């Protein structure tokens, strides 16, 4: 002991030099001499090793794009441990003696793909591909630990991965082939289980039908052989076995990392450095350093200390070392639950219930149980359980140790505990439960998986043996105060009472009094949170009643209609059916149009070889730029002080408005500036930029810039704008028929309103630009992630003061766009170009997720007011609607978006007398912009609101009223376009029959009669979406096709690839027209020097426009080759090309297309607004939990008219992806702004997009058969935006379920439900005895945490 103490003394005093870090990456040994403790594994992989397959999506461990696998040899168990982690949070220092496997280590297109890579690609599970490497690594890590997992294991493995494109189903479908449920039976041909049969019935259903239900053939998959995996590096195995535990020390610019090898040494270090942070998984400190600007000069990592990693079983419980990971704790507890008698494991099961929904697998694999306690988060999921169970904690310092109980005195304030600065938490003792003790834990969050709690609770009650008299009760809550709290007053009132109805009444009244919250409390949702404390207690009450009955004690029985309130959520594995029409008999095998061809980049995306903008290798003398943005929503800039920033290491210069060589005026309508000039008009307004040698240096310098403001009154919400008459011109009106006469004719009128929240694009790849000055004539080359290369070119040229011909913009692919990269990307590109121009060096900038969410704007929030006149039958005869959009601080595309909202204000319903007015609100928010649907979904959402109100007020079914009002062939729209080729009725009828609507309606009604606290709802919603840019001049496209001497074809066109498969479809088109296999055709990128003056890739029209242009170019070339074909009819394609070349025939052609007969005028309400319409109908069924507001998406059936599909795999992928994005918009995604206009939701931690678990349990997508469209290439139809709105069927199914819940409380008739239908809104709308105990505070008497913008 003396000896180790001395060594420790020597070590801590002489720790001056840095140690060597030894680790392996993809089998290659790396020895790092000077490791910066603040460097993450992700930065190291991408910038130092050049492995760019691992992506940066959020930097907070919330999206999974950076997932890699770590492997280490555990000396005490002599076993290898493989686990997935987030590289963005993993400190490089923590990887001593660890093997890292990245997506590049599994396989490559050139060598050989790993089955995990191949299957996600071939099952169409990769669209934009930015999330694909992370998903591949999550699956790979699962297979390394469990070669034949269950579907449930797979779903758990993906809890920490997000995808914004696919809608998740194809990923699960492809990977199902690895699982027990869908894997290989070794050719024994078990029914349903054989992978040779699964989903691949020869790709055709039956002999006579031309309906196909499979998009890929599993027979094409390479077999998976777990014995052939990459071995653990033998050298590392020897090093690990022979390693004497030694301490490590790493010094960086601002921090020192100390990794002690023994407990004594650790205690001594903590004594020396009481202010040091202890880091195990870095899942908390990593986020603090990144987002809260924390600097920790000394970091202690106890990962090597044996005492902190051990698990000990004692007679009264299990003791976990504080550094045990949550995954490990879960495994130990699951084993205990399996082996011990049930009455002993009540606490363990409560912990496991919370762990199921605790972050994602990657976080659970590294986060330590001690870290969870010491972080002292008020919304911790586990602390309430530890508190309710009375867990004991062992604390030590250099000289003493003490044991404290986790009770209400342990947390002394917000994120503070009784642990002294020089003490450390050594272990946590989780006790066995007693014979008559019952414990439950509940967590309510916006999204079920990987989400932070709104309210979390654990409740423990102990009864006097053999009775139902309460002997001891603890009710612990998180999310109801700055710390985890115990409801002591309530608990004391319940002691000695019988567990029955009276106790419940008393408990609810008492909890409502004790668990109060200030109406301005951080996190908002105050009424909802207060209601949850009661609702969750009620669930506990019922659960305990059931358990008492089982023990033969209870007198009161849980009535059958309340049983569903006690059911613990068990996820079901989703299943899907995709139906499309086979290609006609006799179509040549080489003609790939109409076949489910894989996305051309899918394989590269799955191996990490696909190059995105930020993956371009660093240039020799490249610099990094970071933006300086406003912290005020509306203010004058008084002064900017950059002196501290300029003193920061690595800084080259700071840029402001005076540094713009050309025009500082910019934007779609020229009403914005490159850099703010004297005034800022939103939080996130770009004021300047810092350029430095590295990203880290530039970020630190940008934070050091000091700006003084004189604040002005901001306008933040639509309601504030209406009050101040703050609107952009013009105010649009669209009118048809005689409104006054219509309302006179009506037998009923009703008025209503709805607010539709905005939406963040959340493309996985944020904005990125790399500008490279070419050194002569003012030339500049830009690599940009944008949907509008030509606009970027013009706007950058304007800022640089050069003609457009000096600026080249190149786009290979984007990691998602969704409209968010249509007009706003120039805000970043111009700044980066100005910097590169000034410094004459390449400059790069990729926004961090929080910056991107703050600066770039999103979908316009809308507020709709309507008055509707209708007959007893439900036929609508008059409608007057006013739409207000929150446009933000500049016009951008808001006018076109409002126009499209007005064009879609009647959705699919024929209304003879109608008027719509559109107001664009000028507010102090970042300018809102294009987003898939472009105003259409908002306009149609208002329509569905009034049609539902009409049905509710008449007491009829909403489906009947919808069907009655549907458009039929030949009817005019409000903008006087006569409808031709209407397939609404066909879609509607097929949707009802495929979904079994009648049976489902009966089943839903039966369920609702039998259950009080869960209700089901059902809804059928149609959509009609106009296809064309509403700005006529944009409906044009160009293409350039070269045939080379060897017969290969290089093609480029005006559209960009963002995952939607546009390049794939264009290759299919060219392949058919030229009559050559698609393998001979290549598209490299989109660039402004090959096709000029292109329109943005938007409005769903890119396949129509560019497809026609490609077709035009190919036909010109075919005509030129015609003589050589005639001359040599038996020759090959190569023969004809060679012959043409020797005859000096031009083998390069420029194609062009413009959509004919377009041009609508608002002034005269005449002219064709759209080329044609896409139609679709969806039927959805949901189940809501009336006590918590949570809901489950049970079944959705979609029938979509996409004409004759160019590529059914891509089109169905678009339908599903669009649907899931709409599901986020209407049920999940909420942007919270403070009353001062500050965005509070700036990352996946606080902003929730749909995850794997949000897919409907049964999803059927059918592409309408025999519906050719004569207005577009090869009779196809646009598919990008139209399906998104069909997700409103989920919203209206929820509304239907709420109706049933309200009826139980005796409330009927129309009611307002704003979008999104979040758990909070659902719970409050299900008015009952619990909500009555928690009335909301009077508006105007307090300042809310967030406002509805």
Can you walk me through this structure?
The protein is α+β, with helices and mostly antiparallel strands and 1349 residues long. The strands form eleven sheets. An eight-stranded mixed β-sheet has the order 25-29-23-36-33-34-35-44, sandwiched between helices. It has a six-stranded mixed β-sheet with strand order 6-22-48-47-46-40, sandwiched between helices. Strands 2-1-5-3-4 form a five-stranded mixed β-sheet. It is built from 37 helices and 48 strands. Mean pLDDT is 95; it is low at 1-14 and 184-207. The chain starts with a helix and ends in a 17-residue tail after the last helix.
How far from one another are the termini? Answer: 64 Å
Sheet/helix structural class: alpha+beta
Radius of gyration: 31 Å
Residue windows where pLDDT falls under 50 for at least 5 positions: 1-14, 184-207
Instruction: State the share of residues found in helices, binned by percent.
Output: 25-40%
**Can you list the strand order of the major beta sheet?**
25-29-23-36-33-34-35-44
**Number of H- or I-type helical stretches:** 37
Give the CA-based shape: globular
Largest sheet: 8 strands, mixed
Mean pLDDT value: 95
SS strand fraction: 15-25%
Q: Could you give the count of β-strands?
A: 48
Domain FAD-binding PCMH-type: 250-435
Main location: other
Binding site for FAD: 278-285, 358, 381, 425, 443
Subunit structure: Homodimer.
